[in-house]
Amino acid sequence: MPDIEPLAFVFADDGLVPNSSMPFLVYKGAVDVANDHPEKTIEGLFGANGWGAMWRNGVYDYPHYHSTVHEALGVARGHARVQFGGDHGKALDISAGDVAILPAGTGHQLISASEDFCVVGAYPPGPPMQITRPTPENHAKALKTIPEVKLPKTDPVMGADGPLVRLWKRS
């Protein structure tokens, strides 16, 4: 795997979506998915780097975040436009081979997608993923749970020496 540096974005807390002081990361074209089993290719990469509890699907078309766990989204097929970081965040185009890594609290919502769009989701060891919608009550709770989420020991794309390990630090 080439040594690639991800795009990094820090989204501010907007009062409903807490986001994170740690950067949201996007690896463009990180995974070679030009094969007959792109989902298995991504699952193998994530699994080899210690990220599990995987699923295959799309991205929900309503704003949400995860307040108890970090998330990796590997695009296996197709392409989509996703709003990351809540209403004041950034809409990004992601496509097959890209991997987005969301620190706990990072808002995301599907804007549009190709019919064949498929992502593989994965999580570092820890509590199960819970879907949290942006409400004032959920925001208040998330501000307590997000700081408790353990930092991953590995980057889901690049492993123990990957950029995530270097870039994600508690302030």
Topology:
Layout: E1 7-9, E2 24-27, H1 38-48, E3 52-57, E4 71-77, E5 79-84, E6 90-95, E7 99-102, E8 108-113, E9 118-123, H2 136-145, H3 163-167
Antiparallel strand pairs: 1-2, 2-7, 3-9, 4-7, 4-9, 5-6, 5-8
Domain Cupin type-2: 61-116
InterPro entries: Cupin_2, RmlC-like_jellyroll, RmlC_Cupin_sf, UCP019307_cupin, YjiB-like
In short:
InterPro entries: Cupin_2, RmlC-like_jellyroll, RmlC_Cupin_sf, UCP019307_cupin, YjiB-like. This protein is of the alpha+beta class and 171 residues long.
Describe this structure in words.
Residues 61-116 form the Cupin type-2 domain. With 171 residues, the protein is an alpha+beta fold. It has one domain (7-152): Jelly Rolls, CATH 2.60.120.10. The chain has three helices and nine strands. The protein has helices at residues 38-48, 136-145, 163-167, and strands at 7-9, 24-27, 52-57, 71-77, 79-84, 90-95, 99-102, 108-113, 118-123. Strands 1-2-7-4-9-3 form a six-stranded antiparallel sheet, covered by helices on one side. A hairpin with a 5-residue loop joins β5 and β6 (90-95). The longest helix has 11 residues, at 38-48. The chain is globular, with a radius of gyration of 15 Å. 43% of the residues are buried. The model has no long low-confidence stretch (mean pLDDT 95).
